[in-house]
């Protein structure tokens, strides 16, 4: 049986130290390689919109007939995985982790959720991991389009 989000992989991120920070020493793509296989049967759509306060917002819409789940510090702040364009290629440089814990959130069937994104430039990609309720299928979804 493969370990996914909350059972094996996520504790590596959230149980290391107390307080919230950004991890950079491990390549997150290596840690999540098995978590995103098999992929979700139908991928959510992402639309970039301008928030009321001028902040960039990614609106994620679940196109499946079942809810999808993600972990985050709050409903509008999912755990993110960042790639940066360096040395002529995309490099997985950082991920959110929190020693005090992350909660599991839901996007209902055919529902949407807005996520507030930190400032980014065209050399940065921001991903979030979404899964089925049993965490047997998951996909990394690009939240921004640099």
From TrEMBL:
It comes from the Bacteria. This is Uncharacterized protein. The lineage of its organism: Bacteria, Pseudomonadati, Verrucomicrobiota, Verrucomicrobiia, Verrucomicrobiales.
């Amino acid at each position: 049986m493969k370990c996914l989000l909350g059972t094996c992989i996520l504790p590596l991120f959230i149980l290391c130290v107390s307080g919230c920070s950004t991890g950079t020493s491990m390549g997150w793509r290596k840690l999540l390689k098995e978590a995103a296989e098999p992929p979700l049967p139908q991928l959510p759509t992402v639309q970039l919109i301008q928030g009321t306060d001028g902040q960039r917002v990614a609106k994620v819409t679940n196109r499946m007939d079942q809810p999808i789940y993600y972990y985050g510090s709050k409903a509008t702040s999912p755990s993110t995985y960042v790639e940066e364009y360096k040395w002529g290629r995309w490099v997985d440089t950082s991920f959110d982790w929190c020693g005090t814990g992350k909660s599991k959130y839901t996007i209902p069937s055919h529902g949407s959720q807005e996520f507030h994104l930190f400032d980014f430039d065209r050399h940065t990609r921001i991903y979030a991991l979404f899964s089925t309720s049993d965490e047997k299928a998951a996909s990394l979804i690009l939240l921004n389009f640099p």
